[in-house]
Design goal:
By secondary structure, the protein is an alpha/beta fold. It contains 8 helices and 10 strands. It has a 6-stranded mixed β-sheet, sandwiched between helices. Strands 2-1-4-5 form a 4-stranded antiparallel β-sheet, covered by helices on one side. β9 and β10 form a beta hairpin. The longest helix is centred in the C-terminal third of the chain and has 16 residues, at about 180-195.
Length: about 260
């Protein structure tokens, strides 16, 4: 299986000589094409810094990161925007939709930027993805006319529309109620299983994490533990996740 993401011996420091914080401490892992991987850890563990480094928002201090064979730690600033546009899809907790565009226009925007894309092909692609995520009925609506769950599924459609090598999701259910969270996570399963999307998701929530194939637990900037779902049901995997969260000192009363 092709490795889409390769993280090797990365470290990240903040501060100056008198006050240095080590946010990431020698982390290495790979993500294969078609995997759905979750990253969990308590507040301040380094999971958001790790995602920022992978997404090219931040730079590592030492180590290497490759996405689809490209060494991103050596990308020049003028190449980063093109790389993000072609290789990465993003799903944020606060949706990040453009208020002045309809759902259709928000999803189609990334395709319109690409050269050689005809309007007919863009429309067909948007409708195809919208059907997969059950958001056809909101395509003509503006963000203020949609629920939080609908906005997040539109954001998921926007992330997959260009067939990126890797989708990065940062606390995607953080602003959603339990029903909307389930619908979004069902959409993630469709993206992963039917559209072969490779997903790396940061979450503090054990129920959300139970949808992934594999979980990396981060503590004090290191990979503390790893769980592989295997043939477990989602409920069985959830219970195993809770055991590790307890070891990490997490709050198991706020996992749904």
């Amino acid at each position: 299986m092709k490795e889409i993401l390769q993280v090797k011996d990365i470290e990240k420091y903040y501060g100056n000589k008198g006050n240095v914080t080590k946010a990431i401490n020698n982390i290495s892992f790979n993500v294969e094409e078609g995997e759905f991987v979750g990253i969990m850890g308590p507040s301040g563990s380094g999971k958001t810094t790790l995602l920022n480094c992978i997404s090219t928002v931040d730079n590592v201090t030492t180590g290497n990161i490759k996405i689809n064979g490209k060494e991103i730690t050596k990308l020049k600033s003028k190449s980063i925007e093109k790389f993000r546009r072609e290789e990465l899809g993003f799903i944020f907790q606060d949706f990040n939709l453009l208020d002045t565009l309809t759902a259709f226009e928000n999803i189609a925007l990334a395709l319109t930027i690409q050269e050689g894309k005809k309007a007919k092909n863009i429309r067909e692609r948007v409708l195809e993805v919208a059907r997969k995520l059950d958001i056809e009925e909101v395509l003509s609506k503006f963000p203020y006319e949609m629920s939080g769950g609908q906005k997040q599924r539109v954001a998921a459609a926007r992330a997959i529309i260009t067939n990126p090598s890797l989708i990065l999701a940062d606390e995607p259910t953080g602003a959603l109620d339990s029903k909307a969270s389930r619908l979004l996570l069902d959409s993630f399963e469709k993206l992963n299983e039917e559209m072969k999307a490779t997903i790396l998701m940061v979450t503090h929530d054990a129920f959300t994490a139970s949808y992934a194939h594999r979980i990396l637990f981060i503590k004090d900037g290191r990979v503390f533990n790893e769980l592989i779902r295997g043939n477990d049901s989602r409920k069985e995997f959830f219970n195993r996740i809770i055991e590790v969260v307890t070891l990490l000192g997490g709050d198991t009363n706020n996992v749904f």
